[in-house]
Amino acid sequence: MTEHTQQTDPQGRLKHFLTTEGLNHTLLTSILDHAENFAGVENRPVKKVPLLRGKTVVNLFFEASTRTRTTFELAAKRLSADVLNLNIATSATSKGETLRDTLRTLEAMHCDMFIVRHANSGAAHYITTQVAPHISVINAGDGRHAHPTQAMLDMFTIRKHKGDFAPLKVAIVGDISHSRVARSEIHALNTLGVTEVRVVGPATLIPKDVESLGVHVFNDMSAGLEGVDVVMMLRLQRERMSDALLPSAHEFFNRYGLTEKRLKVAKKDAIVMHPGPINRGVEIESNIADSSRSVILQQVSHGIAVRMAVMAMCMQGNTEGIES
Amino acid sequence: MSQNKINIDALIEQMSKDIFDFVADIDEDDLLMVGIRTGGIWVASRLHKLLKLESELGELNISFYRDDFSKVGLHPEIKPSKLPIDITDKHIILVDDVLFTGRTIRAAMNEIFDYGRPASITLAVLIDRNKQELPINADIVGKSLTLNDGEHVKLLGPEPLALEIKELDD
User: What does the alpha-carbon distance between residue A191 and residue A87 come to, in Å, rounded to a whole number?
Assistant: First the structure.
């Protein structure tokens, strides 16, 4: 079975959102279009619409997160859903309950949607196979595999600044190997039809077969940034590194940190992105992170609108509890 | 399918006169006309011109407020709501093309109240089908039309405006 059918219902509508891989141009664009519509809600006196009134959304985070969890929570609340935040570290799983039994328990509380973050790749997909048919699952990051809502909020941010994807050259810089964000970005950028996706970083942090995803590999930062419209910096995922893949953070900054000088070879109007949390002086120079070319904080606010769009789209067919 | 012979321009002209009389006691600065996407906006923009209203025409896309979201899903057409000014204490003239069950108007009013607390809402519709399922009636009606159960009326536009009345298959 392809990922496409795992994520969409028979009408081709989004049911789960696990990865950007395999979703077509029309669907990705409609996520961005809906997000555009939802973005207006935050400028109103009442920052809330009643779309998911009576639905219950569970934030199921097996891994620490601040911005992703809180923006999912805010997105759900702005759609008028009720939100449960489960801190798995202090909950039943630590008392020996299996994941399946935790899911059964939550289902018994009539929940409608699980937002899942997990250290293991494929965790969100596994959960879709374990839950009742009316429940939607959104992947909020699984291991090194995917972080689709992060990719879509980045696509939203790029479209806001650049309009059309077709002419763009995008460089993704840093630790590609451990980055679920990078994988989701690459699939989304290629589906949306940019001219070129580059990955830039040391050979030890770039997967061997990455070219098969449709990217060009650069080990030299200056060559990699030459003429690009968008620079996407990644965080060094030191918590996921078990081997000595790089000498030191300082050494990394010397070769791959984004500085004003290095950014000069990119297009004059190139924007700088980072999924956060940023390590100042490791991936990015402080004054670049705070400059007018940096759209890092816009990425965060766009995250709310994009997550509202994805949640609403996944719940479209959910008639649980509604008389026909 | 039939393209009705109804003279829409004449109906809208008459509506503008009725609205003028209806809001005669209200200061023009406090008036705000709002059309409901898509047909309501077509009618509203004509009325807005005829009444020479100063304030910008508002547009409502009520799709986030529909009571049948779980059944029909999100509307694929994208056009966000646009209310031009602070609506608190304004007198709103809400315009739609066809008043049928009243559910659209309910959704529109719910949305309006998330923008503020208007002084009043007046409902103006081009066609009243007299089939309300809710206690909602129009203050200004272009034409009252009683159709058979299987018949459906739709405003085509924006230029020229025409009414299409057709038999639905199911």
Answer: 35
CB atoms A319 and B76 under 8 Å: no
For A285-311, the pLDDT digits (tens) are: 999 999 999 999 999 999 999 999 999
Coil, strand or helix at B2: strand
**B73–A317 CB contact, under 8 Å:** yes
Interchain CB distance below 8 Å, A34 and B78: yes
Cα A214 to Cα A196: distance, rounded to the nearest angstrom: 9
Give the nearest chain A residue to B61 (CA atoms).
Answer: A37
- What would the two tokens of residue A163 be? 């309009």
The neighbour count for residue A200, using CB atoms within 10 Å, is 27
Closest residue in B to A310 (Cα–Cα): B74
Quick one: closest CA in B to A49, which residue? B64
Closest Cβ–Cβ partner in B64, B80, B115 for A51? B64
The fold for domain B2-68+85-167 equals Rossmann fold (3.40.50)
| A282: alpha, beta or left? (left if phi > 0; alpha if psi -120 to 50) | alpha
C-beta of residue B149 within 8 angstroms of C-beta of residue B170:
no
> Taking CB atoms and an 8 Å limit, are B69 and A33 in contact across chains?
no
Residue B42 — φ and ψ, nearest 5°? -60, -50
Locate the domains of chain B by residue range: 2-68+85-167
Homologous superfamily of A148-300: Aspartate/ornithine carbamoyltransferase (3.40.50.1370)
Q: Which residue has the higher pLDDT, B86 or A206?
A: A206
Helix crossing, A296-314 with A25-39: angle to 10°?
110
Question: Rounded to whole angstroms, how far apart are CA atoms A6 and A85?
Answer: 26
Phi first, then psi, for residue A12 (nearest 5°) are 85, 10
The Cα of B13 is separated from the nearest Cα of chain A by a number of Å equal to 33
CATH class of A4-146+302-315: alpha beta
φ, ψ of residue A37 to 5 degrees: the values are -65, -45
Report the alpha-carbon distance of residue A263 to residue A144 in Å, rounded.
28
* pLDDT tops 80 at residue A240: no
Q: With an 8 Å Cβ cutoff, are B116 and A36 in contact?
A: no
| Cα angle, residue B63 at apex, residues B58 and B69 outer, rounded to 5° | 165
- The mean pLDDT of B114-139, rounded to a whole number, is 96
- Residue boundaries of the structural domains of chain A: 4-146+302-315, 148-300
Distance in angstroms (rounded) separating the CA atoms of residues A228 and B44 = 46
